[in-house]
């Protein structure tokens, strides 16, 4: 009986392993597409967005941020697929190094953009402060994740890298929190800042749920025995 029931469960697990990565790719594609179009515009391409006086030429910080975010998002997404991790462990390790470096590039360029350029029009001191907080949290999560795997603490490594990924994908979620916040509460500097912060907090809330879900499932199985 056990053998008969195991195979359908495995098949269902395989079917369910891909919707989440696909959703994450879609989520990250929104801000990355906008960033890529911005780079094309700065390079002399068609004017898709209103001109931004903060950036002239081809700013290194912006280019590094967009390219780093693209690598971090797309390669990092496949790091989260259990089937790939189990079957391609060598690839997972190599890709993990790429993701870690890309994440640090994202954090460093975000700090550069925050401190070295004027604030984005329509944003205030609240967002400025929280950008520094979440940049620091991204770096800390990456460092703690790397440290954990060097100690062979796989669970700790998984938890910290999921948190880093959640912070890194904040811009994708902010598209929705800003849209929803604007529709419900109107627009304005403070409301816009709070909507952006809500995107990061929502991602971290989901991340903590994902991190703790295996433990809850294991407890349920133990009780069922």
From TrEMBL:
InterPro entries: DUF2306_membrane. It comes from the Bacteria. The chain crosses the membrane at residues 20-40, 60-82, 94-115, 127-148, 160-177, 197-215. Keywords: Membrane, Transmembrane, Transmembrane helix. This is DUF2306 domain-containing protein.
